[in-house]
């Protein structure tokens, strides 16, 4: 195991921006309850199939209904009691409702998911030998968060953790980038990332921060069975208050052709390396 150190990462929107409601970044109220629209085939079907998600309306074009007919029938056969009536509409209806988005002829109006408690999630890992948590420090672009969640689902991470402030709430842009993973990977929010890292340590997790200037790469350090991967913004990296609470500081070796990786790319590479390391260890036993 390595000595206590620090972290890495990326996000191109380090400052608040103004966008349409379907792509708003921040700030927003911590306890978001306003309905919003999820768009895109994978994101919409995943929302419909999630029993904890309240879907209020479902708008589908005839072409999209035809392509997704089997999946829709299966979902409605299993969950018809809590799903909305399917509204078959002309594509112009959706484009007027959500101008400029790639919707693939399928959108659903939903209520945000209930906030997940990280403490509860950590308690649920007591009997799990291998666990990975992704922590994001000041990642403000919902598309980056969504892409990280997609990678988290692909590599079996148990949760993604963000701040309550200066972090995106659920939006259609986030859900579409997650490609259904918003419904599958718990998204936990916390008021203080530094304290949360200490909570994770108390639960038996080793905390690894990604930092572009770290002397060792992730491949060169021992990967514990239970880890937290901490990633910061592309421009600033991890804040000092978060960095000093990490057990290890590692980098992802890249060429001088680019200065850094986008946070979602960095998360995918790091998660792959953790998975590769664990599979290699498993084959040796």
TrEMBL record:
Keywords on record: Methyltransferase, Transferase
SUPFAM superfamilies on file: alpha/beta knot, L30e-like
Gene Ontology biological process terms, A to Z: methylation; RNA processing
UniProt domain RNA 2-O ribose methyltransferase substrate binding: residue ranges: 37-116
Pfam family, one: SpoU_sub_bind
InterPro entries, sorted: Alpha/beta_knot_MTases, Ribosomal_eL30-like_sf, rRNA_MeTrfase_TrmH, SpoU_MeTrfase, SpoU_subst-bd, tRNA_m1G_MTases_N
One GO MF term attached to the UniProt entry: RNA methyltransferase activity
Residue ranges, compositional bias (Polar residues): 1-20
Xref: SMART domains: SpoU_sub_bind (SM00967)
Region (Disordered): 1-29
Enzyme class at the top of the EC tree: transferase
CDD domains: SpoU-like_RlmB
GO annotations of cellular component type: cytosol
Enzyme Commission number(s) of this protein: 2.1.1.-
Keyword Cell division (UniProt): no
PANTHER family in alphabetical order: 23S RRNA (GUANOSINE-2'-O-)-METHYLTRANSFERASE RLMB (PTHR46429)
Protein name according to UniProt: 23S rRNA (Guanosine-2'-O-) -methyltransferase rlmB
Native organism: invertebrate metagenome
């Amino acid at each position: 195991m390595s000595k206590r150190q620090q972290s890495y990462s990326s996000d191109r929107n380090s400052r608040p921006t103004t966008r349409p409601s379907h792509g708003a970044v921040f700030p927003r109220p911590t306890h978001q309850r306003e309905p919003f629209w999820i768009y895109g085939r994978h994101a919409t079907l995943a929302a419909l199939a999630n029993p904890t998600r309240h879907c209020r309306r479902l708008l589908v074009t005839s072409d999209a209904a035809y392509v997704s007919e089997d999946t829709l029938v299966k979902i409605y056969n299993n969950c018809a009691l809590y799903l909305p009536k399917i509204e078959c509409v002309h594509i112009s209806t959706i484009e007027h409702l959500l101008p400029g988005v790639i919707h693939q002829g399928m959108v659903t109006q939903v209520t945000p998911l209930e906030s997940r408690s990280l403490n509860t999630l950590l308690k649920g890992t007591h009997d799990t030998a291998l666990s990975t948590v992704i922590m994001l420090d000041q990642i403000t672009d919902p598309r980056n968060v969504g892409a990280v969640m997609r990678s988290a689902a692909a590599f079996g991470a148990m949760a993604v953790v963000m701040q309550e402030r200066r972090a995106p709430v659920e939006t259609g842009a986030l859900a579409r980038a997650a490609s259904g993973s918003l419904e599958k990977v718990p998204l936990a929010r916390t008021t203080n990332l530094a304290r949360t890292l200490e909570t994770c340590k108390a639960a038996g997790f080793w905390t690894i921060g990604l930092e572009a200037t770290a002397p060792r790469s992730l491949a060169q350090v021992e990967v514990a069975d239970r880890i937290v991967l901490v990633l910061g913004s592309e421009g600033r990296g991890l804040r000092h208050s978060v960095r000093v609470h990490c057990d290890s500081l590692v980098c992802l070796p890249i060429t001088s052709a680019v200065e850094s990786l986008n946070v979602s790319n960095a998360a995918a590479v790091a998660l792959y390396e953790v998975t590769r390391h664990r599979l290699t260890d498993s084959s040796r036993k």
